[in-house]
């Protein structure tokens, strides 16, 4: 073979190896999501629900710490769409958060590809559509982030892993519910509770009609399973329990917990827990899985109960008899608050990294900024029924906040969110928090509403350091847990009570702070925290992606839909495959 041919081949191999190395390192996981409507009857009434790849709920994203996740989304709805990866911190990548403050929506019939890394995270979360009240019609699914093999988990490896989505449900679809809210009305009592998109098992012939499909989870006797449970509903806190089985709490939204047994646990809207459940009962019959509404008159809310079946492979009969009892405290929320306080961080366990979770001594860090964030019952603002935080009802700008910053647009938002509730009449504004990069923020949520709220912060895990009834004061800090308060992404705030969190602002971007109660969120109970590094660098924030969509003041920059343009160029699976094919082809040509 001529030396020039060998030289060409070696050069070609070097080029392809160099290109391949640019894709080396942390693995890529690829998913395709087709988001569409399907007809379903989870409560016996035919309705339109939002499915992912024809399934309701959608598939679970099963990934591992530090994986690069690529999700190509095809929007087959008749309205705009964004998918939010709730609990995924999107480190250095606020562009991928899937919320209107950071992303322009995906138009109907368009493709768009999300690409993000689950950097230094483990745990259980879920995704959902974040626009137009769509979550009330489905479109949600689980997210499981597994430990890397070299990082030990603080319990024996379970025999199986099960994802359960629970949530209140209406037989009206999201467009009807949305119209009700826009007309200034309450949604009223839900029609039921779904477990994995299915209605209740017919445990009572009077309460549950015949012909409803229910969830059955089949397990092997004597084995231990990890069961991940998310409340993906609209506004109802749910008590989760499995008849005759203990729930050993192991993890909450990315943090391993001190392991404690519960006969039942309150799971509030937007929250996720994972339990270790040993299948240690006899198989004389199946067992009930129950998710029932909390803090309500049980006799009036009997129909708002989700019931599934836990079935041993050697079961000898159907579940029968009454459901296991829920906590009996309709008017006293002390039990539920004490239960929440009992959930502690496992400071000796490794999380996503080898070092113990407790090596981050959050209790010894000086607080640099303090916000008391208060919500109240809905109010009329500018002639509309709205919800507020600190007297401000948030208005999402037509141009996303992060995009406005990128193009140095003025007047899109105000960096003037108040550190305490405003006096005077409420107002509608795009007012956001000016967070300090590498600052340490204390946020006190004061719930002056009559219903439970849960609050979520994108981009971070925060430490829940205290909660109590009454009005927070400076003296309340004396009750803070500064050692093993749980680090999570969503926390409950009881009516007439407060919850305090601490958070390290080490993630540059624009991050949503909201109630997870979908009706209140829709009506304005949110804001954003803008965290900027004064010395811009790719080390703290990745560049705007090639496939970023444009809207609002920048809408003229948007090109017509082009699948190649709409797909992110970083980590594209087809490009690497193409390199391999070309390299093999070149070798075959040379040796032919």
Highlighted features:
12% helix; disordered C terminus; six-stranded mixed β-sheet; 7 helices; globular; 33 strands; mainly beta; 592 residues; five-stranded mixed β-sheet
Give an overview in words.
There is one protein chain. With 592 residues, the chain is mainly beta. It has seven helices and 33 strands. It has helices at 3-21, 174-182, 334-341, 401-406, 518-522, 563-566, 573-591; strands spanning 28-40, 47-52, 61-64, 68-75, 83-86, 111-117, 123-129, 141-146, 160-169, 192-195, 216-219, 224-231, 238-242, 247-252, 255-262, 265-267, 272-278, 287-293, 305-312, 369-375, 379-381, 384-386, 392-394, 427-429, 433-436, 440-447, 453-457, 462-469, 487-488, 490-493, 497-504, 509-515, 526-532. The strands form eight sheets. A six-stranded mixed β-sheet has the order 10-9-12-17-14-15, with no helix packed on it. The chain has a five-stranded mixed β-sheet with strand order 11-19-18-13-16. The protein has a five-stranded mixed β-sheet with strand order 20-26-31-28-29, with no helix packed on it. The longest helix has 19 residues, at 3-21. This is Monocopper oxidase-like protein SKU5. Residues 35-149, 161-314, 399-534 form the Plastocyanin-like domain.
């Amino acid at each position: 073979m001529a030396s020039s041919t060998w030289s060409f081949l070696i050069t070609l191999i070097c080029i392809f190896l160099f290109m391949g190395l640019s894709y080396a390192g942390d693995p890529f996981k690829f998913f395709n999501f087709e988001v569409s409507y399907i007809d379903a009857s989870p409560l016996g009434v035919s309705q339109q629900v939002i499915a992912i790849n024809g399934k309701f709920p959608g598939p679970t994203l099963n990934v591992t710490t530090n994986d690069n996740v690529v999700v190509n989304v095809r929007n087959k709805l008749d309205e705009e769409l964004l998918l939010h990866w709730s609990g995924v911190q999107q480190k250095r990548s606020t562009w991928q958060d899937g919320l209107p403050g950071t992303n322009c929506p995906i138009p109907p019939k368009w493709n768009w590809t999300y690409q993000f890394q689950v950097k230094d995270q483990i745990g259980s979360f879920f995704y959902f559509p974040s626009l137009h009240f769509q979550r009330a019609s489905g479109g949600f699914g689980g997210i499981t982030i597994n430990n890397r093999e070299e990082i030990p988990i603080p319990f024996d490896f379970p025999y199986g892993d099960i994802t359960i989505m629970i949530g209140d449900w209406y037989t009206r679809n999201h467009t009807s519910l949305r119209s009700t809210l826009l007309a200034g009305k309450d949604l009223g009592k839900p029609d039921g509770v779904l477990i994995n998109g299915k209605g209740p098992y017919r445990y009572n012939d009077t309460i549950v009609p015949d012909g409803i499909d229910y969830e059955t989870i089949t397990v092997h006797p004597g084995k231990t399973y990890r069961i991940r449970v998310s409340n993906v509903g609209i506004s109802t806190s749910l008590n989760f329990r499995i008849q005759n089985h203990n729930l050993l709490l192991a993890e909450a939204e990315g943090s391993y917990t001190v392991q404690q047994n519960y006969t039942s646990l309150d799971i509030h809207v937007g929250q996720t827990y994972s339990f270790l459940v040993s299948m240690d009962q006899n198989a004389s019959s199946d067992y009930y899985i129950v998710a029932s509404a909390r803090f309500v008159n049980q006799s009036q809310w009997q129909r708002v109960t989700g019931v599934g079946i836990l079935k041993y492979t050697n079961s000898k009969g159907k579940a029968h008899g009454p459901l296991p009892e829920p906590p009996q405290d309709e008017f006293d929320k002390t039990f539920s608050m004490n239960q929440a306080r009992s959930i502690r961080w496992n400071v000796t366990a490794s999380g996503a990294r080898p070092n113990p979770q407790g090596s981050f001594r959050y209790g010894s860090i000086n607080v640099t900024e303090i916000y008391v964030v208060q919500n109240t019952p809905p109010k009329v603002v500018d002639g509309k029924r709205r919800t507020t935080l600190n007297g401000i009802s948030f208005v999402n700008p037509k141009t996303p906040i992060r995009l406005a910053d990128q193009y140095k647009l003025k007047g899109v938002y105000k960096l003037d969110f108040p550190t305490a509730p405003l006096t005077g009449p409420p107002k509608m504004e795009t007012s956001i928090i000016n967070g300090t990069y590498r600052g340490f923020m204390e946020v006190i949520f004061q719930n002056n509403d009559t219903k439970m709220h849960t609050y979520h912060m994108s981009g971070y895990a925060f430490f829940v350091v205290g909660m109590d009834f009454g009005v927070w004061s400076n003296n309340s800090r004396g009750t803070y847990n500064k050692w093993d308060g749980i680090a999570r992404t969503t926390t409950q705030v009881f009516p007439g009570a407060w919850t305090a969190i601490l958070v390290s602002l080490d993630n540059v971007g624009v991050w949503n702070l909201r109630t997870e109660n979908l009706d209140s969120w829709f009506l304005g109970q949110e804001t954003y925290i803008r965290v900027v590094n004064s010395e811009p660098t790719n080390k703290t924030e990745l560049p705007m992606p090639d496939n970023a969509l444009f809207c609002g003041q920048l809408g003229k920059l948007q090109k017509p839909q082009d699948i190649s343009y709409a797909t992110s160029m970083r980590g594209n699976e087809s490009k690497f495959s193409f390199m391999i094919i070309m390299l093999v082809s070149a070798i075959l040509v040379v040796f032919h």
